[in-house]
Amino acid sequence: MSLLDYFRTSKASSASLAKERLQILVAHERSSRNQPSYLPQLQKELLEVIRKYVNVDQDAISVNFEQNDTQETLELNIVLPEHQNKTPKTTI
Amino acid sequence: MARIIVVTSGKGGVGKTTTSAAIAMGLAKKGHKTAVIDFDVGLRNLDLIMGCERRVVYDFVNVINGEASLNQALIRDKNCNQLYILPASQTRDKDALSQEGVGKILDELKRDFKYIVCDSPAGIEKGAHLAMYFADDAFIVTNPEVSSVRDSDRMLGILSSKSRRAEQNEEPIKEYLLLTRYSPERVKLGEMLSVDDVQEILSLHLLGVIPESKSVLNASNSGTPVILDEKSDAGQAYSDVIARYLGEDRPHRFIDDKKGLFGKLFGRK
């Protein structure tokens, strides 16, 4: 750090940017780490079964696993195509 | 009771071997009989950092395969007679280490040694897995840099789910943070993650901060663990780490920018 540095306008520091990015990333990776390992396979197979009956998109189904102190919740969310005018949401 | 310490990080080049050499020497210097094991099969380097590369006759894999006894393979350190080094093999066979083999050697070492330091290779492959599997304590070596912090967090996940203690539902591995290559000046300029930032993200117990230091390269050049360079900042920082690990309460040094007003105005890099 030299005398000149004092006259330069300070931008948002790169360290704070690094911290922000890491906090988001680490939180995301930690939540997926605690998921059961069968989750991706379950999602794939569920999609196959559902597509036998309803023509849904690949991304129309989401499986979320949540954990708190007392219970574990597996949430299954299927968005049916629009013309069937129903959007059931199933929670197991 | 002997304790097994793994020095790990996920990311390469952050200072695992430097740290393993320094802490093994530090523990031995305090009078504890210590063994340090290189788990980086195929890329042996601990011997070079410890300065015993010309005395390697047998290695870790030779002992696992029964081609040599543990006593034949262990190299007594030239600076401290309480310290022994078990070098890695230079074989390219990825499956040279087995869980049973490593477990057996560690059990044998536990009878004779107080501390067993396992120098993990980078990555999360077999060598890294076996280095941490039997551990009681883990030193997570992290640089104040995004990819290193991320990999350290990933390693923490592996320690808490894939280790022997985790698998057998025992008390979890004690995890400690060792922040290396730290540059207080750059932190002050907002160019580097601070100790507090890294601790906040990883939520680990901080064992020590090792400043970026010329003495580390000098030490590896000469094959003497940097902790023996008692005048150097990095050497002193590692001594503090050992003292804290052994239960002493020491304030953290080398965290603040010590440059005075003169240095700031006519700054040298």
Summarize the structure in words.
The complex is a heterodimer of chains A (92) and B (269). By secondary structure, chain A is α+β, with helices and mostly antiparallel strands. Helices cover 38% and strands 18% of the residues of chain A. Chain A has a three-stranded antiparallel sheet, with helices on one face. The relative contact order of chain A is 0.10. In chain B, 41% of the residues lie in helices and 16% in strands. Chain B has helices spanning 16-29, 46-50, 60-64, 70-73, 99-112, 126-133, 146-162, 164-167, 184-188, 195-202, 214-222, 233-245, 261-265, and strands at residues 3-8, 34-38, 75-76, 83-86, 115-119, 137-142, 174-182, 205-211. The longest helix of chain B is centred in the middle third of the chain and has 17 residues, at 146-162. In chain B, helix 1 (16-29) crosses helix 12. Chain B is of the alpha/beta class and 269 residues long. Chains A and B meet through helix 1 of A and helix 7, helix 9 and helix 10 of B.
List the helices and strands and how they pair.
The complex is a heterodimer of chains A (92) and B (269).
Chain A lengths: L13 H20 L5 H15 L7 E7 L4 E7 L10 E3 L1
Antiparallel strand pairs in A: 1-2, 2-3
Chain B lengths: L2 E6 L7 H14 L4 E5 L7 H5 L9 H5 L5 H4 L1 E2 L6 E4 L12 H14 L2 E5 L6 H8 L3 E6 L3 H17 L1 H4 L6 E9 L1 H5 L6 H8 L2 E7 L2 H9 L10 H13 L15 H5 L4
Parallel strand pairs in B: 1-5, 1-6, 2-4, 2-5, 6-7, 7-8
Antiparallel strand pairs in B: 3-4
Helix pairs in contact in B: 1-12
What fraction of the residues of chain B are assigned to beta strands by DSSP? 15-25%
What count of helical segments of chain A does DSSP give? 2
Structural class of chain B, by secondary structure, is: alpha/beta
Widest sheet, order of strands of chain B: 3-4-2-5-1-6-7-8
Q: How many strands in all of chain B?
A: 8
How many β-strands of chain A, per DSSP?
3
Protein structure class of chain A: alpha+beta
Helix content range of the residues of chain B, please?
Answer: 40-55%
Query: What ranges of chain B have pLDDT less than 50 throughout 5 or more consecutive residues?
Result: none
Largest interface: chains, residues each: A-B, 19 and 26 residues
Instruction: Sketch the topology of chain A as an H/E string, one letter per element.
Output: HHEEE
Q: What radius of gyration of chain A results from the CA coordinates? A: 22 Å
